[in-house]
């Protein structure tokens, strides 16, 4: 049997890493990219070092490097700052939240989302730039196709689909209420930032409810909070803030709809058996420690 953290190429995270690297290359080559090479190095280094420190301090089995590498790539893609120390701060907070902010052994927040917004609040020198993705049909289709592949393999396509459906319904209702043209709705729905969020942020299996019904509720609630923040309070990057606000509801939803924990097994495949009594399964035990 493979050791905990030893993952094969069948693990969906390999595909996610490949996609994020390609997306980062695209942004560097063709879009407005304001994160300096030094800041990127600081973010990646801070994530990896923080995980190593946490593993040693907590004396837990090493969970491997795939998830922190994904977190560091996501920070490079989403975080904007002119200061390397701010990028490092985001990396430290993102990875520390993964080990410290837990309920019943499960993440409370998406680590990347938490790290970015904590750095924005604490430093005053960081921001998120959704416009960097553009709204061209090619990049949106590419991101959606790659994201669907990852979430399908991670059994989390339901939460992505539910979020996009709720987002579409709310925005379509607003467009119809205000009498705007259909092009306004299509422009909002063809954003690369929206697709990245739906397939690579809110679909994080370690920080979302275990039951499918609970995930649908979680996604719809996040979409509604994002809508209110965007159109009522004019908050930039509203979906990220909405996810941060709604994430603490996950433990409540898990109690209302109890299911077995999501886990990565030693073979790199997924374990998501619908049996609350299966907490003794080695996959669930691995998740609780990783």
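^ Assign residues to that structure.
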């Amino acid at each position: 049997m493979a050791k905990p953290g030893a993952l094969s190429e069948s693990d969906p995270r390999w595909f996610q890493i490949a996609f994020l690297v390609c997306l980062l290359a695209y942004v560097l080559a063709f879009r407005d990219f304001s994160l300096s090479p030094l800041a990127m190095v600081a973010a990646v280094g801070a994530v990896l070092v923080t995980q190593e420190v946490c593993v040693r301090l907590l004396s837990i089995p090493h969970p491997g490097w795939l998830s922190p590498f994904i977190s560091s790539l996501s920070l490079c893609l989403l975080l904007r700052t002119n200061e390397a120390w701010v990028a490092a701060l985001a990396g430290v907070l993102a990875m520390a939240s993964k080990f410290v902010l837990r309920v019943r052994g499960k993440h409370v927040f998406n680590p990347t989302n938490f790290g970015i917004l904590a750095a924005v609040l604490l430093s005053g020198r960081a921001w998120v730039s959704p416009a960097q993705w553009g709204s061209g049909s090619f990049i949106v289709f590419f991101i959606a196709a790659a994201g669907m592949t990852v979430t399908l393999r991670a059994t989390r396509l339901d939460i992505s689909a539910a979020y996009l459906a709720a987002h579409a319904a709310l925005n379509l209702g607003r467009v119809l209420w205000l009498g705007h043209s259909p092009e306004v709705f299509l422009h909002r729905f063809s954003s690369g930032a929206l697709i990245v969020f739906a397939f690579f942020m809110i679909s994080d299996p370690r920080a979302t409810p275990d039951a499918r019904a609970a995930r649908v509720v979680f996604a719809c609630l996040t979409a509604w909070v994002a809508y209110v923040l965007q159109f009522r309070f004019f908050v930039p990057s509203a979906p990220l803030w909405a996810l941060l606000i709604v994430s603490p509801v996950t433990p409540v939803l898990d109690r209302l709809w109890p299911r077995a924990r999501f886990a990565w097994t030693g073979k790199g495949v997924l374990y998501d058996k619908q049996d609350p009594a299966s907490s003794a399964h080695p996959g669930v035990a691995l998740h609780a420690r990783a």
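The longest helix spans residues 37-58.
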